Amino acid sequence: MSGKTKQPKHKMSAMAKKEERTAWLFIALPFLGFLLFMAYPICFAVFASMSKWTGMNSLVDNFCGLQNYINIFHDEKFWKSLLTTIIYLIGIPIGMILGLLLAMGMNRKIPGIRLLRTMYYVPVVSSLVAVSILWAWVYNYDYGLFNSIIKLLTGHHGPNWLGDEFWVKVALIIFMVWKGLGTSIILYLAGLQNIPRNYYEAASIDGANGWQKFRHITVPLVSPVTFYILITSLIGGFQVFVEVQVMTNKGGTNYSAATVVYYLYDKAFSNGQLGYGCALAVILAIIIFIITALNFAGQDRWVKTMD
Amino acid sequence: MSSKKDLASSRLVSKKEKIFNWIIFVLLLLGAVVMVFPLIYMIATSFMTKNQILSGTLTILPDPILIGKYSEVLKKGQFINGIFNSLKVAIPVLIIGGFTSSLAAFGFAKMRFRGKNALFLALLATIMIPFAVVMIPQYVMFTKLGWTNTLLPLIIPGCFGNVSIIFFLRQNLIGIPDDLMEAAKLDGCGYFRTFLQIFMPLMKGALATQLMLWFMGIWNDYLAPTIFLRSEKNWTLQVVIRSFNSYYAIQSDYALIMAASVIAMIPTMALFFIFQRMIIESIAISGIK
């Protein structure tokens, strides 16, 4: 990072050699961990994805080439779980817009901001399992909080949140926005505080109104934060699992709530199709890689830096 | 003359702004109440009687207040066992993994060696790799090693260090001038001693924050424990409360489920409330960097 002068490779002094050896020793364990628990499993997954392997039979003898991938291509449940995963991503823009608006509200001279910020952040640090259990209770058809409120306000019985194929998706999106909103607020607030005040003052003198300032100063200048939130939420969004497993019964009515990772888990650990599961894992990794790469490629178009 | 007019208009603006600020405050407060309301409802439910819970009408205040569910939860061997298992994972991982991570961060930030940037980028790239991709091979590996009847699948990988912690600590160390390193070298201080006696004290605040976040991650982890822990006696707390949920929901014992979940959330909540400034700052930095 800091442009140090490179030493010529052949003439390393004894001291530099000692430094290098010690440094390698210092980073040895994390690097070994990377090889053992990341690099090796990935290679293994790629290899196992080409076998009708169940963990009980031989991995090599059941080699089937790309058959698993061909089967996945014709697998309705896979496409259904992929579509559901993508539908859940609707929560990302909702969370980002709410997060930015709330952060702008907090970026004013208002008393009690720190307490408010904490209140919004509490769901983030809560255990995902515990709050999934809680929300399953909130969404309970007969006695839950939501349907109690709906009955009180309208006199009608609310929807079967977790049992209905449509409403279960709405329910999970609401839950995910609630769980993640605090992070967006904190990140946007930090981004907003980085914008020099005189930008707004200059714009005011030029006669810009509130919307114009928002559109031409705030939005472009927090775009690096938007980019960061987008990338991390997309990567996270493709890995949704816990809330589906805790809140729904076996992936919901007609598998309507299941995500790709849920399907992968189901195949590998409930059906014992480890080879097929590995093929799903490889596809998941490729999807995430492509989305991240696309984002970085498009970054220059809309992400502005402060200079 | 015109300055007087300006003053008046600016006073008007500031008054207008004050009202605006109040409106914003009320809106923010309403939103915040909506955010914490489910958690309050969770605590309230844990004190309610079954009759009140299943009455079907909207009630928030428990009447009468029932605390028996908490003692009932704490008397369950499985629940206590879950707490101990979670601690048995967290303590060695935080001590050993915290040490290996900070040592590596020091190596990456302050020492010169060939392949430094390539190695660092390789490590960093693993943050983007979903756990779901490696979980099947890891499961097979741990089964072959005979670890799935122990807590080792959750402990051992953590002891090799944590990449995001290495990243944050490295960032923190880069901010410390290199002069210290040179001075230590001139004094004949070895690299390990330099790390332990000079740099460790300088990064202990950052390390503490990162370890807290890591603790929260370990305590709240569910996917890895549910895959790797085959025998019930090893279940960590999150796996236990999830099994409570499926078991007691059939009996409609929501008070007990909520009480168990509330207890499971206490450690991370307590840490967050005590150290919230440090934790929030560290999250905020991650977006700007």
UniProtKB/TrEMBL annotation, chain A:
<dbReference type="InterPro" id="IPR000515">
    <property type="entry name" value="MetI-like"/>
</dbReference>
<keyword id="KW-1133">Transmembrane helix</keyword>
<dbReference type="GO" id="GO:0005886">
    <property type="term" value="C:plasma membrane"/>
</dbReference>
<feature type="transmembrane region" description="Helical">
    <location>
        <begin position="21"/>
        <end position="48"/>
    </location>
</feature>
<keyword id="KW-1003">Cell membrane</keyword>
<keyword id="KW-0472">Membrane</keyword>
<feature type="transmembrane region" description="Helical">
    <location>
        <begin position="166"/>
        <end position="190"/>
    </location>
</feature>
<keyword id="KW-0813">Transport</keyword>
<feature type="transmembrane region" description="Helical">
    <location>
        <begin position="86"/>
        <end position="106"/>
    </location>
</feature>
<feature type="transmembrane region" description="Helical">
    <location>
        <begin position="274"/>
        <end position="297"/>
    </location>
</feature>
<protein>
    <submittedName>
        <fullName>ABC transporter inner membrane protein</fullName>
    </submittedName>
</protein>
<dbReference type="InterPro" id="IPR035906">
    <property type="entry name" value="MetI-like_sf"/>
</dbReference>
<keyword id="KW-0812">Transmembrane</keyword>
<dbReference type="GO" id="GO:0055085">
    <property type="term" value="P:transmembrane transport"/>
</dbReference>
<feature type="transmembrane region" description="Helical">
    <location>
        <begin position="221"/>
        <end position="242"/>
    </location>
</feature>
<dbReference type="InterPro" id="IPR051393">
    <property type="entry name" value="ABC_transporter_permease"/>
</dbReference>
<feature type="domain" description="ABC transmembrane type-1">
    <location>
        <begin position="81"/>
        <end position="295"/>
    </location>
</feature>
<feature type="transmembrane region" description="Helical">
    <location>
        <begin position="118"/>
        <end position="138"/>
    </location>
</feature>
<comment type="similarity">
    <text>Belongs to the binding-protein-dependent transport system permease family.</text>
</comment>
<dbReference type="Pfam" id="PF00528">
    <property type="entry name" value="BPD_transp_1"/>
</dbReference>
TrEMBL record, chain B:
<comment type="similarity">
    <text>Belongs to the binding-protein-dependent transport system permease family.</text>
</comment>
<feature type="transmembrane region" description="Helical">
    <location>
        <begin position="254"/>
        <end position="275"/>
    </location>
</feature>
<keyword id="KW-0813">Transport</keyword>
<dbReference type="GO" id="GO:0055085">
    <property type="term" value="P:transmembrane transport"/>
</dbReference>
<dbReference type="InterPro" id="IPR035906">
    <property type="entry name" value="MetI-like_sf"/>
</dbReference>
<feature type="transmembrane region" description="Helical">
    <location>
        <begin position="190"/>
        <end position="215"/>
    </location>
</feature>
<keyword id="KW-1133">Transmembrane helix</keyword>
<keyword id="KW-1003">Cell membrane</keyword>
<feature type="transmembrane region" description="Helical">
    <location>
        <begin position="151"/>
        <end position="169"/>
    </location>
</feature>
<keyword id="KW-0472">Membrane</keyword>
<dbReference type="Pfam" id="PF00528">
    <property type="entry name" value="BPD_transp_1"/>
</dbReference>
<feature type="transmembrane region" description="Helical">
    <location>
        <begin position="89"/>
        <end position="109"/>
    </location>
</feature>
<feature type="transmembrane region" description="Helical">
    <location>
        <begin position="20"/>
        <end position="44"/>
    </location>
</feature>
<feature type="transmembrane region" description="Helical">
    <location>
        <begin position="118"/>
        <end position="139"/>
    </location>
</feature>
<keyword id="KW-0812">Transmembrane</keyword>
<dbReference type="GO" id="GO:0005886">
    <property type="term" value="C:plasma membrane"/>
</dbReference>
<dbReference type="InterPro" id="IPR000515">
    <property type="entry name" value="MetI-like"/>
</dbReference>
<protein>
    <submittedName>
        <fullName>ABC transporter permease subunit</fullName>
    </submittedName>
</protein>
<feature type="domain" description="ABC transmembrane type-1">
    <location>
        <begin position="83"/>
        <end position="275"/>
    </location>
</feature>
